[in-house]
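User: Predict the full complex structure for these chains.
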Amino acid sequence: MIRTISPNRASFGRCSACTVRSLSICNALDQADLAEFERISRHIHFAPNEALFTAGQIARSVHSLTAGVARLYKLLPDGRRQVIGFALPGDFLGVAPSDRYSFSADAIDSVTVCRLSREAFTHFIEQRSHFLMRINEFAARELKLAQEQMLLLGRRTAEEKVASFLVGWRQRLAQIGDERQTIALPMSRQDIADYLGLTIETVSRTLTRFEREKMLIIVAGGVRLLDPSRAAAMAAA
Amino acid sequence: MIRTISPNRASFGRCSACTVRSLSICNALDQADLAEFERISRHIHFAPNEALFTAGQIARSVHSLTAGVARLYKLLPDGRRQVIGFALPGDFLGVAPSDRYSFSADAIDSVTVCRLSREAFTHFIEQRSHFLMRINEFAARELKLAQEQMLLLGRRTAEEKVASFLVGWRQRLAQIGDERQTIALPMSRQDIADYLGLTIETVSRTLTRFEREKMLIIVAGGVRLLDPSRAAAMAAA
DNA sequence: CGGCCAATTTGATCTGGATCAATCAGCGGG
DNA sequence: CCCGCTGATTGATCCAGATCAAATTGGCCG
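Assistant: Here is the predicted structure of the four-chain assembly.
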């Protein structure tokens, strides 16, 4: 079995001890600002599958993820689902143009977040242009990921989708300091399928084939990449 | 034949006379800032199909579109193309996390832009938090559009894709003041197909069927929606 | 006005991934 | 230790949209 993805083990209490600070929007804050940020934020815990917020609700809060993994998704009226992303520690959920959430978010495993009222957050950023620029960087990074995902959804084959997902996910885990041999996959096959615009059967079959072809081994809670360069090649072209 | 999409007819010369200012990032600027913005920007014209910039190039400039329509796209090594968006007057091309363009942009019809060096732009925004917040709003809006497009690409049928595109495009045209009966489609069927993750044949067949079913009429350079509510229903579900 | 070239439409056929349908595996509880 | 549940895998078949292949249309230029 594989450990939960959570580089920080607590961050309850003080922002100055937050282990994901360097990854998060808070990296742009000095000691004084950090104290103020701490004053206006609350740590909240979510159990697996609990909702952080739901599309269509009034967006009263913004969130910075400090531990665990969340799925972000949109639904069609008939229940078809598109996972638009997975949020990891350090990720910021709050770049939005309207006063309502345009997507839903829920905890995949055990999740903790820093939650701030949108109002307090807006006020906080207004006179802190360094912080504002940091938010901008986060938004730009998100936008780039979204554009890459559009290319994947619109123009890649099932095989390329699954390989790209594994390579991209591994890279994101590495960025938050998780460099274990085995790629942890805390999300379900259904989550992966809904992220890649495929069915659960196609994801399963493709992974099984990759295993048969000795590109990887499927293990409990993840996969172990045996041939990263082959995976990278599939993901690239 | 349908007029070109260009609510502004010139904007050569002075930013203060720019007819798309209220739509653009420059809306956040007062007279003094506008003068400075004008000093560091240049108006550039592009002929149809000319490239504004290309993915992978060093991103020396940011652009604000003032007239015409541009296609934004990404390519796979084997030539498969995904159009990630169409830029209209007022749209800002410059929210990016790296020093290289992550997508290509070229003029569909005759296009004019305000171009600024990235360096000057970065310096300009640094001490103007109102402006920075405006950029933020643009980034958030872009991100929301991208997320909606992911849902479309991953989970909608061909029919829903085409209907959604028409409804969404009409809405965007309305936002820039183009409220004519006929929806102008300056982009080619191939552009539309590459935007929707379909083939040109499927787009053509679907439009033809919509016409047969009296939902719309195909005209030179666009379509005339006869039954907007039916189109909206298809786009929603 | 006619001929050419590119874009679009239309038709026939094929296929990757969806759908429908059983198993199978892991695991928590009694 | 076994049962029952949930998620995953595997198999058989189907079909929406892709691919292959002609027409057809519409500018545009001489």
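The longest strand of chain B covers residues 61-67.
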